[in-house]
Each structure stands twice: as C-alpha cells, then as structure tokens.
Structures
1.
Amino acid sequence: MTDVKKNLIGTDINDLQSLCQTLNEPKFRAQQIFDWVYNKGVRSIDDMQNLPLGFREQLAQHCTLDRSQVKSVMTSKDGTQKWLLHFADGNEAECVHIPEKTRGTLCISSQVGCTLTCTFCHTGTQMLVRNLSVAELLGQVISARDIFGEWPTPIGNRHISNIVLMGMGEPLYNYDNLSKALKIMMDSKGLGFSRQKITLSTSGVVPMIDKCAEDLKVRLAISLHAVRDDLRNEIVPINRKYPLKELMESVRRYPDTSSTKEVTFEYVMLKGVNDSASDARELVKLIAGIPAKINLIPFNPWPGSKYERSTADVIKKFAEILERSGYRSPIRRPRGQDIFAACGQLKSESKRACRTK
Ligand code: SF4
C-alpha cells in the first residue's frame, strides 16, 4: 500500500474487495465497510463496530473518511438552502437543497466551473477549474445527509428524496466519475436512491446520452432553451457541435433504451428571445413522438446577465400551447432567488491555477 491514505468515501464494492484482499481480510468485510460508509454514514473508522479491532486499526492506518467541508450555509426565505463546499485542494462548488411539501430535492454540481458558456447561466461565466472526483460527487449527498441527520439511509420519508444533476458543470463531461458515484448512490445497500429519483441534466453531449441510457438509466433532462439551430447556437453553444437534429435523435432513443417513462426538456423563458407563440409551436413539432414534459423556467437574473425574464402572461400563453398539444409544461416557481441558488445562478470563486510554463 502507498503512504497516501485512501479515502473510503468514493470507493465502490470492487475497490473495497481489493483493499480487503491487500490487507488479508475476507471478501465479505468489503460489504460491511460499504454499509458503514454509505448506509450508516459513520464519520470514524473506529465506529465500524462489526469489524475486528485489529482490522479497524489497520484500516485507519491506510484509509480516511474525509468529508468535504461545508464552508457556508445560506438559507432563503422560501426554505431553500445553498451550501458552499470546500475541497481539500482549496476549490469550491455549490450544492442546493430545495424542500417541497412531498419531497426534498438536492441539486448537486459535477464540475468546478464549466467549459460550456450557455449565455443565460451564471456558472458559464466561470471557466472550468476541474471535474469533481467520485468522493466529491458523493460528498455532496453525504454532507446533506449529515446536515439533516438522515442516517442510516431512511426507507420512507426523507429530507433528500430526489437528486438532480443541475448544479455547476456539464455532468456528461465528467462521465467516468459520475457513473461510479451514481452507481453507489443507486445501490440499495448504500445511499439507496432509486434511479427514478435521479435526474441528469445535460446541455446535449450527444455521444454520451446513449451511454447514459445503457449504463445508468436515470431520468434525463435536456437543457433545450431554443428550437432553432441559429438561436440555440447562441444560447447553448454546444449546439454548434451537436445540432438539434442529432440531439433529438439521441433523445428519441433514450426512453426505450433506458426504460424511463419520459424525458424532461428544460426551457428558460427569455423575454423577446425564445418566448413567442411560434417558438412554442415549433417546440411541439420538434419533440413530436417523444414522451416528454417541458419545464418552463422563468429566467433568474444574475449580475451582468444580458437577458430579462419573460412576462408572466407570455409564459402562461407559451405553456397553454404546449398543454393543448398534450405536454405537461409546469412553470417552475423560482426557488432560492434571494440567495442566488435558483436555476442558472450558481457560481464559486474558484479559479484555475495559472500555468507557469
Ligand atoms: S447551463 Fe450547465 S452546461 Fe451550460 S454553462 Fe451552465 S452549468 Fe455549464
């Protein structure tokens, strides 16, 4: 074993079996450790009571249970909470909890900053610093569970019932770490989230959408925001690489391959930009045949943003056109706006270290 201690948070059952083998312990110990880390949420290796004392001591010599530090907590008047997580290398990312009557949603980040530059999104103004590790992805859920005292993994009602990957970053550009973390989140012996309670939102990294359908089978949300290539090229610039035709072909395959019921389209309402009745009718044509729901998101302004929110009347008319065509199109109530926790408002101060050569 190396001198660098291994963080048990971020390991899966295969990693733990290899660890047990290296330490000359039987394989079944791996499942016991997995249960302590992800089901019971212990903070110390010493608390893993069904492991022999000698093995606990050996584990503590080689491993840690390092959690990301919650550096600050902001609470909105609507109950939404935003946590700033501080990582060992000094970088930071935000994570948001949105409580509702029948559920609690945790919106997690996948990267520090983002390579994409969607023009309606505050995160898009922060250059990519790096991908989050498996431990940091899982750590957002683990820290939230710590805050709510939600250990062991509850079977019934939970403060955190749903997870959405709609925070900072493009999740499909951090696929390997994300896929490992999501499999641990979905393990019934671990963090115990059903795949139907996890939604991955992408701006449209087409080649990874099929992979996600086969491998993860979580719910898919597409950050759509425009129905014509010329406009989407501007608002969601990844469209220049993967235009609408290609995107829609992969989205059409998703429900069948992944056995999910429907795809969600996210559509931010920008005054005078993408909110006309003809945009709504084009949207209906674009998604024809796809079992889908459209979330209409009134634009949430941030310092320096160039857009305005569509009026309530315009949003209502847009929704009516979609509803008349048979699509559920809820208008999302902005949450946590007063603490800059609403959709598209997240950003941290982390910057990529300057290269010296
Ligand atoms: S919407 Fe998502 S992909 Fe686009 S800039 Fe914001 S964080 Fe990045």
2.
Amino acid sequence: MKPDAATFIRPVEFPKSASRPVVTPLSPSVVYASDSPDMLDDQYNGKLSGFTYAREGHPNGQALSQILNRLEATENGIVTGSGMAAVSSAVMAILSTGDHIIAGDQLYGRSLRLMSEELPRLGISTTLANASSSDDIAQAIKPNTKMVLIEGISNPTLRVADFHGISSICKEAGIILAVDNTFTTPKVFQPLKHGADIVIHSVTKLLAGHSDVTLGYVVAKDSALNKRIYDFAVTTGLTASPFDCWLAERGLLTFDLRFEKAQKNAENLADALATHPKIARVLYPMRKDHPDHELAKKHFKGNGCNMVSFELTNKTRAAANLFTQCLEGIAFAPTLGDVGTTLSHPVSSSHRSMEALDRERNGISEGFFRVSVGLETPEDLILAFKKALDQM
Ligand SMILES: Cc1ncc(COP(=O)(O)O)c(C=O)c1O
C-alpha cells in the first residue's frame, strides 16, 4: 500500500511548460531538496551546481548578480541585504585587529560611523582623509594600512575622488583599494578597470531605482578575497531576499534610460539654481565652478550624475524648514536614485551624527540641501524649485 500523497504537503508539482517564461521567475524557496547526502556533498564541493539554502545563494540573487557583474565588467559579485551590508562585508571580512584603514572623509554617514564607532571597537584603526587629493591619502598611510575605502562622488558635497592617483599609490604600497561606486554608477565609471580591487554598491539607489528595494552588491577582483567576502556575508547573514532581488532586476532593466534622463535633468536644475539670488552656491561636478570639475572631466567620459547639492544664502534651520515646506511635489526624504526627485537635508539626516565642527569643515550648513534628481519634465522641476525659493 502507498502513502496517501495528499497527506504530504510538499512538493506540489510545478506545472511543466515546453515554452519558457520571459520574465525571471520569483523563487522564494528558503531551501532546496537534493536526492541524497552524496548529491549534497557534490553540491557543496562544487562538483554539481545548484542551490541548497537561500542565505548561501538563490536563483534571484544569482540572476541579479549576473546583471551587476556585466555592468561592472566582472564576475561572481555578491548581492547583500543592503548597501551597508556590502560596505561592512568588504571591510570586516578582510581587516583584522591591528590593521589600519584609510577612508574618504566624506563617505556616506553610516560608512563614517563604521569607521568611527565599530572598527575601533574591534581594534582596527581608521584615518579619514580627503579622497580628492591623492597626496592626502598618501600621507595617511601607516605600516599596517591594509585598505583604502573611497566613494567615486562623495555625499553630499559631490567631491570627485582622485581615482588614478589613489590607485597607483595603493598598488605601489600593496594596499587594497575599495570603491563605493553608488553615486558614480558603472555607467559613468567602472572602478575595477581603473585599478580598484573591490567595488561596492548600494543597489537601493539608482541601480534598482524605484525606492522599493534595500540591497547591496560587493565584488573583489581577486577570487580568494571574493570568497572571503562571500563567506563573511553568508556567516553573518548579510545576504539578500529573493523578492528584493527580483524587484531590483526589474528596476535595472531601465537603469540606462533613467540615468540618461536624470543626469540631463540634474544638469539643467543645477544651472537654473545657480542663477537664483537665494542660492549661495551650487555643487554639480560637470559645472566649471565645481572644485573637482577637472577630475570629473577626466574620469567620467562626458557623463555627470543625477545629484545636485546647493546651499541657501540664509543658512539657518528656520530657512531650511521654510524651504522644504514651500517646495511642492518633491518628497523631502533621505534617499537618492528614485524615479522621482527627492530632497535631503544632511544636517538632519545622513550627517546628523557628525560633529558640528566637522560638518562645517566639509561645508555642510543648516542651509545645505542635496537633490536626487528624477525623471520629471525639466521645466516643471525647475519651476517647483524656483517657486519655493521665491516664496521663502
Ligand atoms: C554612497 C552610499 N553607500 C552606501 C549606502 C548605504 O546603502 P543602503 O541604504 O542600501 O544600506 C548609501 C546610502 O545612502 C550611500 O549613499
């Protein structure tokens, strides 16, 4: 007598189809069944390909990684549960107690907190230095420096890193160069082609592009380093969920188009804001008055970015409150890379834990705003900003 199949809950047979789906199927399965312990051994030993347990890898993560690998001209990238999971994996998988890391002094706020709070607690020393100057990075090197971490374009002042200078210093000194390419995007710059050893992304931002996914990506050129980062991410549980990967894959299909439109809008908005009497300064790397314009021209092959920062002439919190209240149709929200334009105020969000003096040194006052430019009609976007400034 056979057991009644109805009492066994799994598996329900997946419908077979001679034709194949056009869209990547969503595969939320946490676990994958193998035929025998021998088969499982072969999978773990790499003799057979296939998935075992979702934290270690799943089809949607692999599908997403393939697209990101292509964009960054590499292979075997690791998709993580957030951009910070990617930053933490890259740094913490490789550095040990007694090591030293140099990081750009204008990194994303949480990356700075990793440097100032978490790494020292583990006996890893950190030095912050200006990544727009390779001399400043060179001067920060110590005998135990193992890694340099920079962002291509910094947040929120949009300073451009001196990639080539820094990468040749790192090569010469045998130091691992990690580049967070979130703001730059692989469309504008591919760090691994320019001497970086590790590239990192917050996929949450422009790559996924719709503010409905929190994901990251990290890859090391060297396969042993890459395996180290993968093992750390899997062990500490920093890997990503299938649904997020599935959504990000869909978002990535239009990345190129979104980027083109957003950067054009950003350029127009930057030029329009620069002429307004209530604006003290505008920062956009493709403008001639940007402090790193020459570096941007050299590295970005004529591209720009979707980010514009500016400072009001009135640098008080009261003026900042009034401006955000007057700005209609634009979300005041601390993210970037969405299809819609968003406005952020670093003093009250990304840089709130930074010492006031350090913020001032970096030119981030109460009147400082960062705009992540989206896909609106350019005239309407400019009008919305002008109207709010005029009303203040
Ligand atoms: C440059 C940069 N790196 C990393 C991160 C962290 O990404 P996530 O929010 O996906 O953890 C951010 C977030 O804003 C960022 O701007």
